[in-house]
Amino acid sequence: MRAELATTMDVPSWSEIVREVEPLFGSMPDFEAMLIRKIDQGAALCIRSHSEGDAACVLGGLLLGGSPPQGWIRWLAVRSRARGTGIGQCLVEAAIERLNGFDRISVDTFRAENIGGRAARRLYERVGFVAGPLVEVGGVPRQRYVLTLV
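Below the sequence we write its predicted structure tokens.
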């Protein structure tokens, strides 16, 4: 399994993932436009299935942001049928590699009381992120996690 740069051919498959996670993440009406911008910037990573005879299907995706010294994971989701297979960790590790040279990487994720976000919190902790401040993003309560690289 390997994270790759997303292309515009992947957009319909990402849209399926967005529909799956909207109950947990909330409405994302401008996601497709943001995704296309991130693809153009080389800041959209994904893992695709490559089943013989099938068109490639995005199993998980991650969007990067920020500028030195502060990198960001702006969005991460894995298709429900592919969760628990290491896709999320592979994407986060690929993000860390791509942001090599930054001082730190941050991500705003679910707070502890959000049961649906426990897997995401465990993932970030497993790869070395540390819980930082509680923040509000667009009026939504979030937990910031930070990975110090230097």
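The radius of gyration is 15 Å.
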